[in-house]
Amino acid sequence: MRDGDEWVVNGQKIWTSLAHHSAFGILIARTDPDVAKHQGITYFICPMDAEGIEIRPIIEMTGGHTFNEVFLTDVRIPDANRVGDVHGGWSLAKVTLGNERVSLSSGGALWGMGPAASDLLDEVRGGGGCDDPVRRDQLAQLHIEAELLRLIRLRTVTARIRGEQPGPEASIRKILADEHGQRIMELAKDLAGPHGMLEHQRAGGAPDLWGWHWGYLFSPALTVGGGTGDVQRNIVAERVLGLPHDIDVEAGRSWADARRG
Ligand SMILES: Cc1cc2nc3c(=O)[nH]c(=O)nc-3n(C[C@H](O)[C@H](O)[C@H](O)COP(=O)(O)OP(=O)(O)OC[C@H]3O[C@@H](n4cnc5c(N)ncnc54)[C@H](O)[C@@H]3O)c2cc1C
Fold first, then answer.
1. 100, 147, 164, 238: the active-site residue
2. pLDDT by residue (tens digit) across 153-167?
3. Does the beta carbon of 164 lie inside 6 Å of ligand 1?
4. pLDDT tens for residues 55-81?
5. Among 32, 49, 102, 251, which residue's beta carbon has the most beta carbons within 10 A?
6. pLDDT of 138 strictly over 80
7. Are residues 42 and 99 both part of a single domain?
8. 224: CA distance to ligand 1 center in Å?
9. What pLDDT does 176 receive?
10. Is 60 a catalytic residue?
11. Cα four-point dihedral sign 46, 51, 54, 55
12. 210 in the same domain as 109
């Protein structure tokens, strides 16, 4: 709600990556409950040290602490921190999410980070090769997928250099890359046999964050964070293939109305 030159924000947001390290966060706030749900949203840059912000850690099954639950109680954000029009934040949010998908797309299997299919192939070659025909077939398939993803990535980078905004092709890449990452981690675990149950450690005992073990435990998150695979498929269906819009039982209702229902 607006109060002069400030906005007073109350609410809660789960899964906020790196909130405990961040100076600023992007805050997408409901500013008008009486319009359709994609309207009435405003986009702010929120200082993470503002009074009324509480950051509670969430520990993942990797044992790490990447994300948090953030509570906002009467947090005052200056109107100068608003990006774009009042109630017009949804279109900006979509641009941000499109860019996030591109930023998650460099070479590694874990949202562009960590080991890639080529690292797994190197490990197999280094260990004397693999004569199991099923495993060999899976390795070849991963190599093919990695090459396809590399070419899609080059196409995306070229489009960005031309000044084009990321479009639905970023969703196609995310669907392919996330499931590819999960397959790499799963095959690495299978190939490691009983050793796969051991955690890799760096010298000094620190966990090897980008090792196969950590990656295997992190990999289920790939198809959830940054927009789930199901939602990416809806984007591809509607915006690339031109299929009818997904059924929306809240269509035509205001946000407040839908919440009451
Ligand atoms: C590692 C990680 C980091 C994250 N970091 C951040 C962050 O920094 N900031 C942030 O804001 N969020 C972050 N998230 C949250 C993430 O964006 C959401 O979890 C994700 O978008 C899914 O939303 P949800 O959890 O509300 O699930 P829901 O939307 O409730 O989905 C639940 C299930 O229903 C399916 N579903 C939902 N809608 C549809 C539909 N229309 N059609 C078909 N199926 C559907 C989904 O695919 C899913 O299987 C992070 C998540 C992870 C895993």
1. 100
2. 888 888 888 988 777
3. no
4. 999 999 988 899 999 999 999 999 999
5. 102
6. yes
7. no
8. 5
9. 94
10. no
11. positive
12. yes
**Residue 258 included in any domain:** no
Q: Which of 59, 87, 115 is the last residue of a domain?
A: 87
Tell me if 227 CB under 6 Å of ligand 1.
yes
| Residue 120 domain-assigned (yes or no) | yes
How many Å apart are CA 28 and CA 70, to the nearest integer?
13
Same domain, 156 and 49: no
Atom of ligand 1 nearest to the CA of 218: 1
* Residues belonging to the chain: 261
- Do 82 and 100 lie in one domain? The reply is no
Per the DSSP assignment, residues forming a β-bridge with 2 are 7
pTM: 0.88
Nearest CA to ligand 1 atom 3: 225
Domain that holds residue 129: 93-240
H and E: helices and strands count for the chain: 7, 7
What total number of domains does the chain contain?
2
Distance 149 CA to ligand 1 centre (A): 23
Residue 133: CA atoms inside 13 Å, Cβ hemisphere, count?
0
Which pLDDT tens digit goes with each residue over 232-249? 999 999 989 999 988 888
